Amino acid sequence: MAIIPPQTHTNLTKLSQNIKDAFTIENAFESSPIRERQFTASSKHLTLDYSKELIDKHVIDELLSFAEHRKLNYKIQHLFEGAYLNLSEARQALHSALRSSDIHTPHFKLIQNTLNKMSAFAWSIINGNRLSHTQKKIKHIIHVGVGGSDLGPKMATFALKHYLHPNAPEIHFLSNIDPNDANQALDQLNPDHTLIIICSKTFTTLETLENANLARKWLSSRVSSDKIHLHLAAVTSSPEKAIEFGIDEESIFPMWDWVGGRFSLWSAIGLSLMIGIGPDNFQLLLSGARDMDNHFKTTPLDQNIPVIMALKAFWYSNYLHLNAHSIIAYDSLLEYFPNFLQQLDMESLGKSVDINNNPIQLSTGQVIWGGVGTNSQHSFHQLLHQGTVKSSIEFLLPLTSDANPAQHKWMIANCLAQSETLALGTKAINETMSNDCTSIEGNKPHSIIFYEKMTPEILGSLIACYEHKVFAHSVLLNINPFDQWGVELGKQLCKKYIQQVDQPTPKDKSTMYNNILNQYLKYKK
Amino acid sequence: MAIIPPQTHTNLTKLSQNIKDAFTIENAFESSPIRERQFTASSKHLTLDYSKELIDKHVIDELLSFAEHRKLNYKIQHLFEGAYLNLSEARQALHSALRSSDIHTPHFKLIQNTLNKMSAFAWSIINGNRLSHTQKKIKHIIHVGVGGSDLGPKMATFALKHYLHPNAPEIHFLSNIDPNDANQALDQLNPDHTLIIICSKTFTTLETLENANLARKWLSSRVSSDKIHLHLAAVTSSPEKAIEFGIDEESIFPMWDWVGGRFSLWSAIGLSLMIGIGPDNFQLLLSGARDMDNHFKTTPLDQNIPVIMALKAFWYSNYLHLNAHSIIAYDSLLEYFPNFLQQLDMESLGKSVDINNNPIQLSTGQVIWGGVGTNSQHSFHQLLHQGTVKSSIEFLLPLTSDANPAQHKWMIANCLAQSETLALGTKAINETMSNDCTSIEGNKPHSIIFYEKMTPEILGSLIACYEHKVFAHSVLLNINPFDQWGVELGKQLCKKYIQQVDQPTPKDKSTMYNNILNQYLKYKK
Description:
Helix content of chain A is 46%, strand content 11%. By secondary structure, the first copy, chain A, is α/β, with parallel strands linked by helices. In chain A, strands 1-2-13-12-10-11 form a six-stranded mixed β-sheet, sandwiched between helices. In chain A, strands 6-5-7-8-9 form a five-stranded parallel β-sheet, sandwiched between helices. The longest helix of chain A has 28 residues, at 271-298.
């Protein structure tokens, strides 16, 4: 474990043995009246209670000293200065600049100009200044994108449904190349008052271009070719390709090399979201993220929420062998948040070489999975409480709700009850365990991240918090969180197979899929 | 490992060492021209290609002999005969009876009578014989249920969207106690032509009753109290409670002790689904499940799809330490299938005592997670290809599509490209690995389950296949897959916390949640 100094590794190994042998969450609370306070960190919008983790002061101190050894503090500063490089692609990683209010931030003017262009466009749709080919108001927007061009905007548009602008069109998302997805999105709408926003950095992404072509064809069933441009917009770093597709230059918004797809919600990729919630709420989203940026930049490591989350993940995956991490939101507005986090965390940290291309001996990214409470209690919590596989867990808990504050108490009570069940097991109500199928062992680690309620600012903070957790975690591991070379080979092989299914040749001995391909030909039309 | 005979355990341990040291999927295909055929099993509707697993003939043979030692064959027969008991709750487990066509099946008449009552009710809605309080056709149904009363019907209604009856009302699902969920379901609809179907075995489930109360209140804003019964139906084993709630006896459908919630899609819990797709398609769903029942009952273990899936899961979790299992459907109609499977598998197998209440030394249920391809390629596949954590994987692949058969080729090509990337890594295109951030190691185990396309029969088969995989897996582990004691304690503790949040008392020293509770009070209204 070259990244970890030998003494640190020895210490952490010994500490993990202590934790396994002698630590229980129950005892930790009994022996320390300040445990809850001691293991809580707060930012302007979020509080992290990590007192129910398999962690004590010695563990945290050792992890913090490792973070210092990794120069985490400096690297955080580098991130904000644009000095930190996406080395394997020789690019900056400057997504945090997208929400900066400091005019000295790199690309500041470019970013502000783009935000202004986005706002003007959004207001023109909301206010009905930009109209359809029949001079009617745009009522629906189909956002076409996949991966980082889809998951963030979709998650946020759903989460902020109480903040949708009353005059905004309804926003729909089309991502999958599965023809069912396009049918689902298009069949229910009328081209006459629908705007298509095509989001693809390269403007060559297979799924997005196929769907864009389907959408343009669908538009042209009602809209004449000289007016179709009124129904199209694009977000891309290849504007020339978008123009060729038939999109007006004024309806094309830039993407930049220095923003990775999974960090791009704050850029023009958020255009559909901005139209949905209105530019003012979009500014609040940015401002909430900026609050978290400041927290990450200026708070000592031992009180720094994303840093603590990264230390936990590093500790569990490398010393306690918890290779899965569950996100359970007691907030049904966050239904798509676990999906969003899967990309953000797993695509960033699912690596096996370090930034110098040396094989890394550590356990890198965890499997991220989860769901929404209370539904999850009636689904997979059984395994969390009584299974043999262990997963680290983060609960997300709003303290109140715009929907129905009185009924919201059930969310609090259920989340705390699940937390106590995980922490104490059967002992929560009964000192003696019966040791049968009803017994719950407890001592299952988890944190609770709580916040007032889902608002644009708080969502901005929450997303930025996980972005920074991913970055801090990557610094501990010494890996590049901004590339994703593992997805390239599949794209190349897809071309091979599309040829095989289009023009099947005599059985190729090297294929491993004779059966599937032969069966496929039976159904091919 | 008392469940496993010592010699078997020794053999499996040795075999797993061989696999780790000397087996690659690449070599396995190179050295055996019949590997694809040898490791493929077929039923009427499904084909399982497990030739890309970390498995060879010796492993399969040893696992099969263990299955015989566990008397799996007999236990499968017992399951269908109703002899296999849910021991800890002293109940039968007879969900397969729900689709039996054999009049000697236990409860056969009761089941047929219920199906007939359901069909009559469904047709009366579809044909407009059962009308709203204003004598109009029912246009919307809100299915209220949670967990097993929600996940199956919701998943299937979405999956069968090409099979919805043209005159059927639209089906909506309301499950979470989060007030946002109820708002989402109710705000967009009009009580005048909406029917509420309340699904709760006990008719006391917190979420379902709270939502049922909200829905009834919402109805009563438009519907007078003497006519509200026209807008209500229930599925429950406590009809007296449903009657008390204001539901007509003729609109109450039974649930039975011998059907667990997560296996209940085929029962009256499927009423909303039946109304949506029509009784004829519902019968096809049952018939597809029956085909899989016959396959499971009559096929030798070494060709038996659910058995092989169970053996794989047992092998990976106990001998190769893969504690997560990913379901990736190249079929966006199966968007909710991974969620459905989470409950089915994790609630059934997330146990740590055997059927005699002895602690079990084995690794039981895996963490089930996943998503829909091709979207998942742009999200978490990076980790599957280049991460350090390993997860076993099942791809679900339809060979054609009702939506757009021509575009469907992309789903095939992408799925096979991902499979080959997982199997061979960089060597798929290049003999020499560059050993840098672009290198993919390969040798990642996975299966492909393929089928013609999503139809009621095939969906029935697919669900039954996973039900039986879970059962076979539980037999190997000697655990009870039909109980879920781990969720009881949380329900009890929830009552404690609902009191604390309703009537906060002076700080209770024993609580671990002073901070959260104090913050909550600030926002409480």
